[in-house]
Structure formats: structure tokens, C-alpha cells
Amino acid sequence: MIYIQSNKERTLPHHFDASCALYGAIDSGLDYRLTSFEEVQSGKFDLLIKSNCFVGSVEFLREVFNRVGISNPRVPLNSDRTHHTMSIKDVRECVANGEELFVKPIEIKLFTF
Prior knowledge:
By secondary structure, this protein is an alpha/beta fold. Helix content is 33%, strand content 12%. Strands 2-1-3 form a 3-stranded parallel sheet, sandwiched between helices.
């Protein structure tokens, strides 16, 4: 089952990405349920989180992870993606030297532009 973040009334997907998940589930013939943030907060789905897929905003998924005791989800250690922690100054120097980088803040949603 795919639980997709919705509005409080469970009539519409929460945002564009949730809409894409909804139509992907429909096109693939997968079972889905529109689910509000408040329902997740209530603990109603605590027993289902580990065995089902939840799709939604950063805040929605942060709540999903918190419900099962994961307070700071990050890229798995066995991921083939390499990562480095560096200062903005170091990033600027790398870019000035012609490097192409994907930059993401350590704290989720830290960038405002």
C-alpha cells in the first residue's frame, strides 16, 4: 500500500509531488490511500510505516520517520553516492576551479533560495 500525503479532508494530494505519486500508483495498478499529516501524527499508522511506502513533504516524512524512532534520516552508508562536508567557501573555490558539484545543506531545508 502507498500512503500519499493529502489535505486534511483526504480529497486531494498535498502538493505536486504527491499528485505524481497518486497518478503513478493509479497507472501501475497499485493500492494507495490519501493520508493527512494529522492522521500520521495521531499514531494511526505506526504499525504500518515499516512495511509500506509513505510519500509526502519533508515535514510529512520527518513525522513518519519520527513515529518509528528515526530522528535524522540520511543517505544510507551503503549508498554508492559519495559525499563530503565542506564550507561554502570551499564550494565556491571548487566551482571557480571548474568542478561541478551537487550541494545540499547538512540541515534539511536550510537553503531559502
